[in-house]
Amino acid sequence: MGSIWVTLLFISSIMVVDGGVGIPRTIDGPFKPVTVPLDKSFRGHAVDIPDTDPLVQRTVQGFQPEQISLSLSTSHDSVWVSWITGEFQIGENIEPLDPEKVASIVKYGRFGRSINRQAVGYSLVYSQLYPFEGLQNYTSGIIHHVRLTGLRANTLYQYQCGDPSLSAMSDIHYFRTMPVSGPKSYPSRIAVVGDLGLTYNTTSTVDHMAINHPDLILLVGDASYANMYLTNGTSSDCYSCSFSNTPIHETYQPRWDYWGRYMETLISSVPIMVVEGNHEIEAQAENKTFVAYSSRFAFPSEESGSSSTFYYSFNAGGIHFIMLGAYISYNKSGDQYKWLERDLASVDREVTPWLVATWHPPWYSTYKSHYREAECMRVEMEDLLYTYGVDIVFNGHVHAYERSNRVYNYTLDPCGPVYITVGDGGNREKMAITHADEPGNCPEPSTTPDDFMGGFCAFNFTSGPAAGKFCWDQQPDYSAFRESSFGHGILEVKNETHALWSWHRNQDMYDIAGDAIYIVRQPDKCPPVKTEG
Ligand SMILES: *[C@@H]1O[C@H](CO)[C@@H](O)[C@H](O)[C@H]1NC(C)=O
Ligand SMILES: *[C@@H]1O[C@H](CO)[C@@H](O)[C@H](O)[C@H]1NC(C)=O
Ligand SMILES: *[C@@H]1O[C@H](CO)[C@@H](O)[C@H](O)[C@H]1NC(C)=O
Ligand SMILES: *[C@@H]1O[C@H](CO)[C@@H](O)[C@H](O)[C@H]1NC(C)=O
Ligand SMILES: *[C@@H]1O[C@H](CO)[C@@H](O)[C@H](O)[C@H]1NC(C)=O
Ligand SMILES: *[C@@H]1O[C@H](CO)[C@@H](O)[C@H](O)[C@H]1NC(C)=O
Ligand SMILES: *[C@@H]1O[C@H](CO)[C@@H](O)[C@H](O)[C@H]1NC(C)=O
Ligand SMILES: *[C@@H]1O[C@H](CO)[C@@H](O)[C@H](O)[C@H]1NC(C)=O
Ligand SMILES: [Fe+2]
């Protein structure tokens, strides 16, 4: 790497240093909108990792565990361990494995002591079936989910998973539990990524993320991109462009196994919390959808009272996270909304001052791609999130980075959330580059809704500089910073009022941030709704 190049990077980027001197704070805003010009030297095509790459090949035998991952339950004392045993099948005459054949056992203990505790969970298989001539069916290996309970806060544990009766136990893995929930207690670093896929750019994102040592990872939808493939393993960077005549949107489910294998190194020791994106829809026979998503990941759904894999909540130290589903009913009479009302009402801001919400398609994005696509969801849910004083919203879907000024109902508002889009994880689809406010790039309103979200709500603005129009004619005031580049973000909540957010581009050195801001809460100026503690 040339030193000139390094020097240039240091000049054009922000070093995240102790004390964060010079890093702006949201209370000094709203800020004038910034668009970072496209870095043309990093425009290379994102290429999928092929099935021949050792990163994605099966390295275990028989019923030995693979694709091991962790996710959190609702509080520090409980964690989910997930893994897969046995081989998937794809083709004709596939025969689902019997999930009862292999036990779901985790042996664990505190680091430095003996592995003397055991938890038993459940197992399942899922199939992806296509009742169409020439298409191949898939059935998964046995997927295991085990919930560990009674864990101490902020403590390093060691564990092995598998079936001891088959001599099929994994190596020892390690994880640290979240700190106890309280206003002075936070995980050090939470990584936020979206729209990862499984390309060589994804590995760059994940490498950068791993070097930042997150305690927890949020994946805001669109994981494997298995739906860029036909069932015969042929793929394209644009499914609808290349395969416009298929009887159903096909997928190649082995890509999920490849994804699970590649991610294992990181997520067998760092918990990952996933919420569904449109690439997880994966329609199949009998109108089933989201089956791989709902089967492969463990979610604290029962624990958080939702009973749905599509929306749930959990605490990580003094932060309450709400994960919302954009591709199921979000309207006021639906189950999700009612659950959200109950969940928000039960949050005690004395214990978890920070309230963070995530879902896949952004409400506030200024890119042409997916512009105002989730407007019906915004109209339905924004008031509720605002009323309860949500501090930060993370989204993906748009393949670029953007951070908003505090905004509510398209109006700058010091008590509105900061919206951050990080759909730039490195998947093989096009990066979002075009802005809706550039001449000639405002989409025709009728083309903007997403079929899977339903409705049309994106009417022309009635006030502000864009009144009477569908798009602004310059970067909108609610957009503080935008850049089209691959990367990931890190949230470091410092105390009740200050959180440092930084965004890290794949083309930069690890300790450099392309964007950094202190997100500052003002509980006195913007009092959150009081709830029964
Ligand atoms: C994606 O990775 C390739 C190398 O595999 C690189 O040349 C290219 O610039 C990357 N693309 C972006 C947008 O970072
Ligand atoms: C796949 O499963 C569907 C639904 O059960 C069935 O109709 C179809 O014939 C199967 N295809 C193959 C290739 O086995
Ligand atoms: C897969 O199917 C598509 C569409 O029928 C075809 O164009 C392609 O050649 C097939 N690929 C393989 C590897 O059979
Ligand atoms: C699947 O959905 C389609 C269109 O919504 C409907 O026509 C069809 O009857 C459904 N099939 C099943 C098996 O429910
Ligand atoms: C809201 O969602 C429910 C459940 O999905 C549905 O029955 C109802 O028609 C929807 N209402 C509106 C106004 O869209
Ligand atoms: C949001 O703004 C629109 C347009 O200015 C207005 O019609 C609507 O009443 C506002 N909604 C709320 C809840 O303030
Ligand atoms: C909405 O705004 C667009 C331009 O952004 C304009 O072409 C269109 O006529 C407007 N529609 C209405 C109903 O005012
Ligand atoms: C919270 O953290 C920020 C940033 O580290 C610091 O400037 C501020 O003084 C802290 N506030 C309190 C009340 O500790
Ligand atoms: Fe998406």
UniProtKB/TrEMBL annotation:
<protein>
    <recommendedName>
        <fullName>Purple acid phosphatase</fullName>
        <ecNumber>3.1.3.2</ecNumber>
    </recommendedName>
</protein>
<feature type="domain" description="Calcineurin-like phosphoesterase">
    <location>
        <begin position="189"/>
        <end position="401"/>
    </location>
</feature>
<keyword id="KW-0862">Zinc</keyword>
<dbReference type="InterPro" id="IPR004843">
    <property type="entry name" value="Calcineurin-like_PHP"/>
</dbReference>
<keyword id="KW-0325">Glycoprotein</keyword>
<dbReference type="GO" id="GO:0046872">
    <property type="term" value="F:metal ion binding"/>
</dbReference>
<dbReference type="InterPro" id="IPR041792">
    <property type="entry name" value="MPP_PAP"/>
</dbReference>
<keyword id="KW-0732">Signal</keyword>
<dbReference type="Pfam" id="PF00149">
    <property type="entry name" value="Metallophos"/>
</dbReference>
<dbReference type="InterPro" id="IPR029052">
    <property type="entry name" value="Metallo-depent_PP-like"/>
</dbReference>
<feature type="domain" description="Purple acid phosphatase N-terminal">
    <location>
        <begin position="65"/>
        <end position="177"/>
    </location>
</feature>
<dbReference type="InterPro" id="IPR039331">
    <property type="entry name" value="PAPs-like"/>
</dbReference>
<dbReference type="GO" id="GO:0003993">
    <property type="term" value="F:acid phosphatase activity"/>
</dbReference>
<dbReference type="Pfam" id="PF14008">
    <property type="entry name" value="Metallophos_C"/>
</dbReference>
<keyword id="KW-0408">Iron</keyword>
<dbReference type="InterPro" id="IPR008963">
    <property type="entry name" value="Purple_acid_Pase-like_N"/>
</dbReference>
<feature type="signal peptide">
    <location>
        <begin position="1"/>
        <end position="19"/>
    </location>
</feature>
<feature type="domain" description="Purple acid phosphatase C-terminal">
    <location>
        <begin position="469"/>
        <end position="508"/>
    </location>
</feature>
<keyword id="KW-0479">Metal-binding</keyword>
<comment type="similarity">
    <text>Belongs to the metallophosphoesterase superfamily. Purple acid phosphatase family.</text>
</comment>
<dbReference type="GO" id="GO:0005576">
    <property type="term" value="C:extracellular region"/>
</dbReference>
<keyword id="KW-0378">Hydrolase</keyword>
<dbReference type="InterPro" id="IPR015914">
    <property type="entry name" value="PAPs_N"/>
</dbReference>
<keyword id="KW-0964">Secreted</keyword>
<dbReference type="Pfam" id="PF16656">
    <property type="entry name" value="Pur_ac_phosph_N"/>
</dbReference>
<dbReference type="InterPro" id="IPR025733">
    <property type="entry name" value="PAPs_C"/>
</dbReference>
<comment type="subunit">
    <text>Homodimer.</text>
</comment>
